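Deliverable D5.2: sample structural annotation.
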Amino acid sequence: MKHIQVVDGADNCVFPVYAVSERDFKLLFPAHGQNVEFAQDLALRLGGEREAGQLIMRCTAEHVNKSTITGIHGTLFINLPNRRRHFPNKRESDVFVP
């Protein structure tokens, strides 16, 4: 199992973490070293919003308590296309943090 964090544009977003299967993780983050994805890009890659929605629903079925896990393996951004400029290669390591 891998852990993903979901970040959306809601004012009350708490950035939940979910446990996902290795198979679904690879569908979300297919490129080598990729650990960031945008729902809009996912829909384009999978052939539509329906397919992406099914994957997202599967991946958000098992909520986990952040205090009980060791590490977050990926981040899925929903309705935040403006964040894309910070992740040109869809890797958190690309972001400059002073």
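Annotation notes: Helices lie at 22-28, 39-46, 49-59. The chain has three helices and five strands.
The annotation will be released with the project's public dataset once the embargo ends.
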